[in-house]
Write a structure and sequence with these properties.
- This protein has six helices and 15 strands.
- It is of the alpha+beta class.
- Strand 6 and strand 7 form a beta hairpin.
Length: about 220
């Protein structure tokens, strides 16, 4: 019995030690999503693992060092890539990058159309809706693209048409979140974006990320 307890203690101690080592070296670590910037893929409060051993590829979510400690967004561009956002759609090297992902955007929905929805759908949009109305006619709501594409009522994307002062300050160009670039990513830099495209302070606003600041890649 004593031997069994000894072996059990050694086994548990070894596991605990390995977990501590992995955490310190960031070989594998557990993170929590503090914002809704990557919804619907990673929701506010979700927990996930990330590893420093997994090489980051375009399309992966990466953990990188930022002024708040550690931030995470989807890697959408690496050095020598040409990125451009046209009417809210991201193009990487001339190819539509967004078509392969279920993203989240701001939509304009006629208030009268909302009233006609079944209760379960009405609840979804009311929970996602912004308190402000546009011209007292349209409700501004943040919703998943795939849900909107299935909707059987009129809607349209809320696209920015004037330069965004924060983006102008960062890049010195009269761009906004929906019409941005083209920009060629310099050596040792990367470009990241949140899946909640209209509600994410990503590279459009904060600028390019140093490659050396990437600390881990989220494990699917």
């Amino acid at each position: 019995m004593k031997k069994e307890l000894l072996f059990t203690g050694i086994f548990l101690g070894t596991i605990f030690f390995l977990l501590i080592v992995c955490r310190v070296l960031r070989i594998i670590n557990l993170y929590n999503a503090p914002t809704s910037s990557n919804e619907p893929t990673i929701k506010l409060g979700d927990t996930f693992f990330a590893s420093s051993l997994k090489k980051a590829e375009v399309g992966d979510f990466i953990i990188y060092k930022c002024e708040y400690g550690f931030c995470f967004f989807r890697l959408v561009g690496v050095e020598n890539d040409t990125l451009e956002i046209r009417d809210g759609v991201l193009f990487r090297n001339g190819i539509n990058f967004d078509k392969d992902y279920n993203l989240q955007h701001n939509y304009l929905i006629d208030i009268e159309e909302i009233k006609k929805l079944p209760e379960n759908e009405k609840d979804y949009f009311s929970q996602k809706a912004y308190p402000a109305l546009l011209n007292n006619k349209y409700l501004i709501t943040s919703a998943e693209d795939r849900i909107m594409y299935k909707a059987k009522f009129p809607f349209k994307r809320k696209l920015d048409s004037i330069p965004d002062k924060f983006i102008v300050e960062t890049f010195g160009k009269n761009w906004n979140k929906d019409n941005f670039g083209p920009i060629i990513i310099p050596v040792n830099k990367v470009f990241v974006m949140g899946d909640n495209r209209d509600n994410a302070m990503d590279s459009r606003y904060i600028g390019l990320i140093d490659k050396r600041d990437i600390k881990a890649t989220i494990i699917d």
